# Entry
Amino acid sequence: MAERVLMKGNEAIAEAAIRGGCRYFFGYPITPQNEIPEYMSRRLPEVGGVFLQAESEVAAINMVYGASGAGGRVMTSSSSPGISLKQEGISYIAAAELPCVIVNMVRGGPGLGGIQPAQSDYFQATRGGGHGDYRLIVLGPAGVQEAANLMMGAFDLAEKYRNPVLLLGDGVLGQMMEPVVFPEYSGPAPVERDWVTDGAKGREPRIVNTLMLDPDDLYRHNLKLQAKYARIAENEVRYEEYMTEDAEWVFVAYGTTARICKSVVDQIRPEGHKVGVFRPISLWPFPKAPLKNLAGRVKGMLVVEMSMGQMVEDVKLAVECEAPVHFYGVAGGIVPSRADVRKNLLQAMQASKGGDEQ
Amino acid sequence: MSLVFSRPKSMREKVTTYCPGCTHGVAHRLVAEVLDELDLREKAIGIAPVGCAVFAYDVFYTDFQQAAHGRAPAVATGIKRVLPDRFVFTYQGDGDLAAIGTAEIIHAAARGENISVIFINNAIYGMTSGQMAPTTLIGQKTTTTPTGRDPSKAGYPLRITEMLALAPGSAYVARCSLHNVANIAKSKSAITKAFKMQIENCGFSIVELLSSCPVNWGMTPSAALKWIETDMIPAYPLGVLKDVTQEVSSGGDA
Amino acid sequence: MPKVVFSEDRCKGCELCVAVCPRKIIFMASRMNSRGFRPATVTEMDKCTGCTLCARVCPDTVIEVYREAPARKEG
# Structure
């Protein structure tokens, strides 16, 4: 019987990780995610896990690499500039096909930027971020309960595909308090953990390696990775549609921004506008097919992001010109107001009508 | 008649990719001999860095992880925290440990991380064909100090091992040399001591091994060993810089 | 009688063993091994004392050393 608790997003994410089997955390303080390492430092020893504050985000991601190679269910968390520091390590983890979970509570950038929420790491998360041809499974929750649900399943997901999973949040998600019920966790999905380097007793030695100097070897490895990503794209797409059945216009937004858009839909529908929200939950793999499908039925789409325009490119690629795609974004750590989102939707609708009349 | 000297079991049969006369081969063999003698092969996980010795995973007959440049102590920390009863060692070069990896090595020592580090100091970057290392000597010519290292521009050689001896978490810190058989034997004793420290959970252990790089020094292998003796040892004095077991019994002087 | 056995195809011709042998019986052969190096070798095996200095300085574990079974343990 699960109880309902009021929790801060960062803390709920940490608790969910532990319930989902996480036993190792390596991280470094950075605003706005410090509650995650702090919570882990208290809670992990209680369940026989290990918390270590590393000397840098770089050190932390390399500790994750080692711990994952050694068979541990391990995660790290950070925010934008710290995630930038981790990119080499993430590329290594993806190359070595090691499972792990990374949490990014996005803040305004570029550079040291601000500490207020943003969605300007979408490119970094979905376009590699680090060097080489690889993909992360990227999940964008829109509330504390959803973040907890996704975190609880994240370690199994990472092990299923031997791939890093990145939870893309923002400071609003991390700092706000909402009621959470932690679902029952049935234990790790059985996976043959034949990558683990825990001492070559009774078997041939194993090597966790990312170096492949022979071009044919490296090409073959890349083909293997791409085949894996194709399997992930087939099986792990997640999205939500809100009032899109009869919609003439839809917002496309994720995370905190999607909630604001839903709120505008609720407000604007009684005025006679048929509007809905298409909310990607998996940012990679991006829900291309359902979005294109929807695009065929609507007059236009407005992508709303707390960035200067990142997911909008994926939306345009996905709809393949089936519907006009407009964009409204804010940067700097500003959270768009309902009024501004609504205004931009009406402007886009107006502009579209103007075009139709020509 | 009996076989009194042969390749250790913890070393694969494969011939290494190291240059003729490179002392990596000797260092690898010493580590493998100690792994054999302390019966550690099946418990060991080594970490191979970026550098010539990245191929260490092809030489040692143990589990291995290849690490990003400088990050081996962090990778080792991750492994040891998950598997505290296994034997975890890193094998790092001077660029890896004393340039890009300075934060990681110092903090592993500061935490008293129960791992063992083999530090190969050949005063140059080997793998990338001979650039300056933090341990390059003043006046030494490298591809990025073509007229000889000038401290006013390129700084001074770094005695990082002395710095590590200051960390409270360090249990055993030693500097040895591979330039002749007598010193090779002393190196093996130091490695044995260091590995035993890990088995006994004493804390962080490191053995620096003054090594040669004949190709990038532009010398024959024999001349390179001589250069270690004449030029490197004065800059990097040999000895045990810290030994917590000695301190307890003798009251301080290593 | 002690002897040393060279796995010639492992040898990279570095000549460290030549310098270290106290009996000066190691020399570089005129033939080439499969790697293109002139391997180290010994012909005057009767002069070998099985001291193992050559094997210990060799970076490539080329040399195996045989000696009378010792009375005490070798280190």
Notes: The two ends of chain B are 41 Å apart (CA to CA). Residues 249-254 of chain B have pLDDT under 50 and may be disordered.
